[in-house]
Design a protein that fits this description.
Helix content is 41%, strand content 18%. By secondary structure, the protein is an alpha/beta fold.
């Protein structure tokens, strides 16, 4: 065993190899030295624990292996992917892609300093929400606004700011759990507010809310159950009715609409999503929603509503813990500017652009791509087929959006191995497996990415078989 270990080239010897010298130029010497040492440590452990004879590679062979390993391990963990899953707001793939205007705004403020909390005219300190508040008020009709890291943060902050130690009335049918074990009752407990659940799972009436109102009541809350649907014998008070009840008893109404549509998505075949400006117009005192879902902007939580309540929220100690940075504010402002004209938003906001793409366009692309993909050595068959996409991101999971896919069957290996190869390709591609075929759903693929799909599948023939996922 000791003779085998002595045959392994030293770190210095390997660093002098042409292969690793090239890697040093691409990365840096420190990273390569660390990589060589880690590789050799693992290699020695493999030799010592091996149950059969081990062949020691030559110095050249070992240098090749180490160079490939270092390049692979030094790749960024967070990389762009082509989303061909058909889920437009895919949480695992970063939800809404940003508009070009938002990306440019990020680059501009990230390149140096920015007046994040300074008024340019007076030179005095200002509030960072100034970067977006006017735009949020224009697009929603609200008096004031605040922005935090996400909508869960918005919910926790609002409850802590206006209801700590007091009751908040919520319909039992709206005590939602969102992905990642975000449960409204637990969030409310963390905020210090006291949950007063009324009604039943399927039916809650206005009288249930009124019966729960007392001196210790801080607010009534409507929560949009975006990730599930209760069907059959159901009832829930309208927002108009809750607002009227709130005015009668001088109790604010919080409307947590979740996904944050600024326009009516019914034109895209997606119904039932509350519209933020409509909630404000109806009289909700505070409206909470996400920035990276139906709005199509960066991840954030947005709070709009009455000025006095927004001030309570903005001055609460938790606001500092949940506040967003200059990059998020720049991207949000750029996205909101696009909504000043709906036609421009539909053209420039990627989510709206993907949703509004006619099915005929997708069919034409699928019929063009399918024969090209079928001609590649790694593909046994490629068929254009009509199917359905989904909005995702916790929004209307049961509603289907018509789409066209290219259904691929690989020449070799299982469909899971084929899907893994595409995930590890450059660019990385995520599809969905259906009926033992990999579906590339073009509803979520930008036309400019069609060439990337082709090049990634074309390159599969030269890739080694990936290890099976554990």
């Amino acid at each position: 065993m000791s003779n085998l270990l002595r045959n392994i080239p030293s770190v210095n010897e390997l660093l002098e190899s042409p292969q690793l010298r090239t890697v040093v130029k691409k990365l840096n010497r420190g990273a390569v030295v660390s990589g060589v040492r880690d590789f050799l440590t693992n290699f020695r452990e493999e030799i010592q624990t091996a149950v059969s004879d081990v062949n020691i590679p030559t110095a050249t062979e070992l240098a090749d292996q180490i160079a490939d390993w270092i390049i692979q391990t030094e790749q960024p963990k967070l990389r762009p992917v082509i989303n061909a899953t058909g889920v437009l707001l895919h949480t695992g793939l970063g939800r809404a892609p940003l508009a070009e205007e938002a990306r440019n705004a990020i680059a501009t403020v990230a390149d140096g300093y920015a007046n994040l909390e300074v008024n340019l005219e007076s030179g005095a300190r200002s509030q960072r929400v100034d970067a977006v508040e006017k735009l949020l008020c224009q697009t929603t009709g609200a008096e004031a606004a605040a922005v935090v890291n996400n909508n869960a943060g918005a919910t926790l902050l609002v409850l802590a700011a206006i209801a700590a130690g007091r009751k908040v009335i919520v319909s039992r049918g709206q005590l939602v759990e969102i992905g990642g074990s975000f449960r409204l009752p637990e969030v409310m407990a963390q905020s210090g507010a006291i949950l007063a659940e009324v009604g039943t799972t399927n039916k809650t009436h206005l009288e249930d809310f009124e019966a729960a109102i007392g001196e210790d009541c801080a607010a009534m809350m409507r929560v949009h159950p975006s990730n599930f649907v209760i069907e059959g014998f159901t009832a829930t008070p309208s927002l108009e009715a809750l607002v009227a009840l709130g005015h009668k008893h001088n109790i604010p109404v919080i409307d947590d609409v979740g996904s944050g549509a600024l326009i009516d998505f019914a034109k895209y075949g997606v119904t039932g999503e509350p519209i933020v400006p409509a909630s404000i117009k109806t009289g909700a005192d505070l409206v909470l929603f996400s920035g990276d879902k139906l709005l199509g902007g960066p991840q954030c939580g947005i709070i709009v509503g009455r000025k006095a309540l927004i001030k309570q929220v903005a001055t609460h100690p938790l606001m500092r813990a949940f506040r967003v940075d200059k990059v998020t504010l720049a991207a949000l402002a750029a996205t909101l500017r696009l909504y000043q004209e709906q036609e421009i938003a539909e053209e420039r906001v990627p989510l709206l652009s993907l949703l509004s793409t006619p099915i005929e366009n997708l069919k034409n692309r699928a019929e063009r791509l399918a024969p090209q993909l079928a001609a590649l050595p790694s593909i046994q068959s490629a068929e254009p087929i009509q199917d359905h996409s989904f909005l995702g991101g916790g929004s209307v999971p049961s509603q289907k959006i018509p789409t066209y896919c290219v259904a691929l069957t690989p020449t070799e290996g299982s469909i899971d191995q084929f899907a893994q190869k595409l995930r590890l390709s450059s660019p990385a591609i995520f599809g969905r497996v259906k009926q033992n075929r990999l579906m590339l759903d073009l509803r979520t693929v930008f036309p400019r990415q069609d060439t990337g799909l082709m090049s990634a599948v074309r390159a599969l023939g030269s890739q080694p078989e990936p290890e099976q996922e554990k």
